[in-house]
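JOB MANIFEST
job_type = single_chain_structure
chain_count = 1
residues = 192
[input]
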Amino acid sequence: MPRDPDHSVYREWLYLEADGGLTTPERARLHRHLLSCARCRREKEQLPALFELLAGSRVEAREDLVERVMSSLPPAGWEARHPRSWIVAALLLAAVSGLSALMVGGGAGQLPGASALVSIAELFRSTIAAGAGLLAASWQGLGMAVGELIGRSPVETIVFALFVLGVDVLFLRFLVRSWRTERVGRGAQRDE
């Protein structure tokens, strides 16, 4: 017979049961525990009032929240505002392609430059494959590093939590600054 989980697990199961997140055996074990534990029964009886309180304090997000957040972010480095910004890259690609076609092409029985174009296509394919592998390994390594950082000691966990909190505060400052700028802009439009 499986060992009963400790009391905190049953308290967590109360909330999971309300969300429909328990399996049938877990639900049966929870109900058996509720028969013998008055404290958990009281907590289960208080859950509807808690859920009602939470539902009453819900703040609905404005419909344009995503657009406002995305418009307040600075453009990423790879985003081109105008097609003209890609002209230099396209000219360099054409120059490299043409130069490689002249250097490699012209062999007996071949179209001039055909092998060079195949070589360049193969170079791009292998570069993309290597980049995808490196990206996957980087994210996996980052996940392992964060897991190791959080789990070693309480001090490191607190430092990591403070770092995350700092990033959150920075993000909120950007949102507030954008909101204030938008409000000032609206006020200036009304004055005109």
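[summary]
The chain is about 75% helix and 0% strand.
Helices lie at 7-19, 24-36, 38-56, 65-72, 87-104, 114-151, 154-191.
exit_status = 0
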